[in-house]
Predict the structure.
Amino acid sequence: AQSVAQPEDQVNVAEGNPLTVKCTYSVSGNPYLFWYVQYPNRGLQFLLKYITGDNLVKGSYGFEAEFNKSQTSFHLKKPSALVSDSALYFCAVRDSTGGFKTIFGAGTRLFVKA
Amino acid sequence: EAGVTQFPSHSVIEKGQTVTLRCDPISGHDNLYWYRRVMGKEIKFLLHFVKESKQDESGMPNNRFLAERTGGTYSTLKVQPAELEDSGVYFCASSGQGTSPLHFGNGTRLTVT
């Protein structure tokens, strides 16, 4: 069965500093991995995805994520955080052999302090 | 392109009543999903349509929940009768083929009192 773990409920970082939001996953087959962001009273917005190829993927708003197969992780990163990055971030996984069902983590709230 | 739209944005009903949530996916998206998030918890998968057919409804909590997708276009999720534990935010999402990401609506916040 697929599962996603986001071990941190909240991440606090100062503006201008690098940020990391952690995600680990479990699937039977090869994973398709996604990051989404949610702003207040809005739906989730797609940030980036890993399907195959280069382990470092780049996405919207300067975010990137690194796929690590041995550690079954897909951590979200940004070299320099902005106050406007403060939001709720969700990691998601889809099993390449299991149809289109996408499983989400519980979310991590990112707070960037000016 | 127009995004995924959900109606209503909020609904407050009493235990035992019926509520119907509606989702209009992005035009041309065959895949439509319903998810639910209870405060602070993960976004839980409910079911997946491919066009008008239910591909996977393994996440539907019980037979009080009924989802339909008329003609492969919009979808409705009916809860009858509603219970207190049904409260949460119900999200609808749609996607194209292959490895396409999900496109989410803004959600319906359901409160059962």
